[in-house]
Specification:
This protein has about 120 residues and is α+β, with helices and mostly antiparallel strands. The chain is built from 2 helices and 6 strands; from the N terminus they run βαββββαβ. A hairpin with a 2-residue loop joins β3 and β4. α1 packs antiparallel against α2. The radius of gyration is 16 Å and the shape is globular. The N and C termini lie close together (about 5 Å).
Length: about 120
C-alpha cells in the first residue's frame, strides 16, 4: 500500500525568518535514513513557498492559470512523503514519529492519503 503524507505546518506559528534548527535537521535525517533502510520511504521533499507557484483551474472547459502570491491562508502544504507500507497503521506510526521529531514548539498536521488503485 502506498500513502502520500502531506505536511501542513501552521504558518501562523512560524516567524518570518524561520529556518530549521540543527536538532530537527539531525533527527529528521536519522528518521529518513531509518525509513529508507526499512524500504518504506519512496520519496520526500519540502516545497517552495506558495507565492512561487501557480494555481491551475478548470471551469466550463476553460483552464486558467493564476501565479502567486495568493490570498493568505492558514493552511499550506510545506512538503510531502511518499511511503510504501504493509498497513495503514504502519503508515500512521511512521507519520506519528515524523510529527514528534518537530517538538512542542510546532503546530502542524500530516494528512495521510492512500494512493488509489493500490
Amino acid at each position: 500500500m502506498r500513502y502520500l503524507l502531506l505536511i501542513r505546518p501552521d504558518i501562523e506559528d512560524l516567524p518570518a525568518d524561520w529556518s530549521p534548527d540543527p536538532r530537527l535537521e539531525e533527527e529528521m535525517g536519522h528518521l529518513l535514513e531509518e525509513m529508507t533502510k526499512a524500504g518504506v520511504l519512496l520519496d520526500t521533499a519540502g516545497l517552495r513557498p506558495p507565492e512561487e507557484g501557480a494555481v491551475l483551474r478548470l471551469a466550463a472547459g476553460d483552464v486558467t492559470v493564476v501565479d502567486g502570491p495568493f490570498t493568505e491562508s492558514k493552511e499550506m502544504v510545506g512538503g510531502y512523503c511518499l511511503l510504501q507500507t504493509r498497513t495503514r497503521d504502519e503508515a500512521v506510526e511512521w507519520g506519528t514519529r515524523f510529527l514528534r521529531i518537530h517538538g512542542p514548539e510546532w503546530t502542524m498536521a500530516l494528512e495521510l492519503r492512500e494512493l488509489d488503485g493500490e
